[in-house]
C-alpha cells in the first residue's frame, strides 16, 4: 500500500503564510494511483486559493465527498465547479436540505448557500475508491454526546434537525485506518463504534478533523477522550469546530496519543 498524503486546504486557523483561514473545513486526499479526492469545500472559494498556493490542482480530483449540508462545508462548491472540477460528488441524500440554527439569537440559515449540484446519494457505507470509504447514517446511542442542539429544518424550530447526513471517511493506510471527520455531529463515540460495526475495525491509527466540542461540557470532552483511548488512536489532529481549548483539554486526557491542532496549509503523510 502506498503512502497517503492529506493536505488541509481550509480550516479556522492557518499554519502557512500563503494560506488564509475561515470558519470552514476542506481537505485534499492524494491516494497515489487512485487519484486525488476532496473532502468538503469550506465556506467560500478560499480553499481554492489555498490549494493553488499549496500546489494542489483541485480540477483534477476524481471526486468530492461532503461531510454534511452546512454552509461552512459546502459553500465553496460553486467556485469548485467554476474551476473546472468534473469529478463525482457524493453525499447523504439530506445534504441539500434547508436548515437553520435557532436558539437565543435570531434564527440563522446554515444550510447550503446555493443549490447543490447533482450528487450521488451515499450511505450507509459507500466505497469511493479502493481504501477510501464514506460512512453516513450513523446510529446515535442514547446517552452518548451528539452536537445537534439548536438545529432545525425551519426557522421557527418546529422541525428539529439531528443532522442525519453527518458523515466521515475511513482511509486505509500502511499504519492502519485513519478516520477523517467533518464536524462529527454524531459524536466521536458513536462514529467510531459505527466504523467498528460496519468495517470491523477495532483500532484506528489517527483521527483528523472537527469534533464540534467548542460548546461542549466537560462530560462530552471526557467521553471523546475515552473513545479515542478505547480504539487505540495514536494521533489526533483536531480543528475547525473542536475549539482550541478543547484540543488542549484532550491533550491532557490522552498521554499516549499525539494531539495536534489542525491548520490550513498542513500536510500529513500516512
Structure description:
The chain is of the alpha/beta class and 270 residues long. It has a single domain (5-268), classed as Ribonuclease Z/Hydroxyacylglutathione hydrolase-like (Metallo-beta-lactamase, Chain A). Helices cover 20% and strands 24% of the residues. The protein has six helices and 17 strands. The protein has helices at 46-53, 71-74, 77-82, 188-199, 218-230, 244-253; strands spanning 5-10, 26-30, 36-39, 63-65, 88-91, 100-101, 108-109, 120-121, 125-129, 132-136, 151-152, 167-171, 178-181, 206-210, 235-239, 258-261, 267-269. The chain has a seven-stranded mixed sheet with strand order 8-5-4-3-2-1-17. Helix 5 crosses helix 6 (244-253). The longest helix is centred in the last third of the chain and has 13 residues, at 218-230. The mean pLDDT is 97.
Quick structural summary:
The chain contains six helices and 17 strands. By secondary structure, it is α/β, with parallel strands linked by helices. Helix 5 packs across helix 6.
Task: Give the SSE layout.
Layout: E1 5-10, E2 26-30, E3 36-39, H1 46-53, E4 63-65, H2 71-74, H3 77-82, E5 88-91, E6 100-101, E7 108-109, E8 120-121, E9 125-129, E10 132-136, E11 151-152, E12 167-171, E13 178-181, H4 188-199, E14 206-210, H5 218-230, E15 235-239, H6 244-253, E16 258-261, E17 267-269
Parallel strand pairs: 3-4, 4-5, 5-8, 13-14, 14-15, 15-16
Antiparallel strand pairs: 1-2, 1-17, 2-3, 6-7, 6-11, 9-10, 10-12, 12-13
Amino acid at each position: 500500500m502506498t503512502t497517503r498524503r492529506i493536505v488541509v486546504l481550509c480550516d479556522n486557523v492557518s499554519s502557512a503564510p500563503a494560506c488564509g483561514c475561515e470558519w470552514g473545513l476542506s481537505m485534499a486526499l492524494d491516494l497515489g494511483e487512485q487519484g486525488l479526492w476532496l473532502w468538503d469545500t469550506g465556506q467560500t472559494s478560499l480553499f481554492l486559493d489555498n490549494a493553488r498556493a499549496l500546489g494542489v490542482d483541485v480540477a483534477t480530483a476524481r471526486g468530492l465527498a461532503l461531510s454534511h449540508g452546512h454552509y461552512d462545508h459546502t459553500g465553496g462548491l460553486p467556485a469548485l465547479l467554476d474551476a473546472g472540477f468534473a469529478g463525482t460528488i457524493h453525499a447523504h441524500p439530506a445534504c441539500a436540505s434547508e436548515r437553520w440554527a435557532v436558539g437565543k439569537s435570531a434564527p440563522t440559515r446554515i444550510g447550503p448557500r446555493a443549490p447543490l449540484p447533482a450528487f450521488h446519494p451515499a450511505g450507509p457505507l459507500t466505497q469511493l475508491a479502493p481504501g477510501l470509504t464514506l460512512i453516513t447514517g450513523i446510529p446515535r446511542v442514547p446517552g452518548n454526546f451528539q452536537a445537534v442542539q439548536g438545529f432545525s429544518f425551519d426557522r421557527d424550530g418546529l422541525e428539529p434537525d439531528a443532522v442525519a447526513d453527518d458523515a466521515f471517511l475511513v482511509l486505509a493506510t500502511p499504519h492502519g485506518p485513519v478516520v477523517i471527520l467533518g464536524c462529527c455531529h454524531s459524536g466521536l463515540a458513536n462514529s467510531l463504534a459505527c466504523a467498528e460495526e460496519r468495517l470491523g475495525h477495532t483500532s484506528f491509527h489517527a483521527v483528523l478533523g472537527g469534533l464540534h466540542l467548542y460548546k461542549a461540557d466537560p462530560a462530552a470532552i471526557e467521553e471523546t477522550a475515552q473513545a479515542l483511548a478505547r480504539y487505540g488512536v495514536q494521533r489526533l489532529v483536531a480543528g475547525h469546530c473542536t475549539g482550541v481549548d478543547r484540543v488542549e483539554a484532550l491533550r491532557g486526557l490522552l498521554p499516549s496519543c499525539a494531539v495536534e491542532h489542525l491548520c490550513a496549509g498542513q500536510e500529513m503523510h500516512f
